[in-house]
Every structure is written in structure tokens, then in C-alpha cells.
Amino acid sequence: MAAALVRPHHNRMIAGVCAGLARRFGTTPATMRVLFLLSCLLPGPQCLVYLALWILLPSEETSGSTAW
To answer: Alpha-carbon distance 61 to 59, whole Å?
Structure first.
């Protein structure tokens, strides 16, 4: 089963979007970051998609937090 699509607390550089996508698709965060940077060379709304994922993806819960 694939991992949940969340922004992890570890291995973040800016917001954790690439790290979360890398965990979900079974690759390294560095590979996902390179793919994102290469995609920025193409025309399209890549930065807007990144910002949308930053807002929409939940942050990974810490093990010490309590759920209400």
C-alpha cells in the first residue's frame, strides 16, 4: 500500500511538498526536487500547483500531539 500524501516534518526544504510526493511515489526527495525544477523549464502553472499543494496537503502529525 502506498504511503499517505502528507507533508512530512523531516526532510523538508521549503514546505515539504516534494518530500511528501517522493514518499508517496517511492522515490527520493532529491529526485522529486530535480524533476520539479526541470518541469519549471516547461511552460505551465508548476509554481501555482506547488503553492496549491502546500496549502491543501496536510502536515504530518507529530507522535506527541493529541487528537481532539
So the answer is: 6
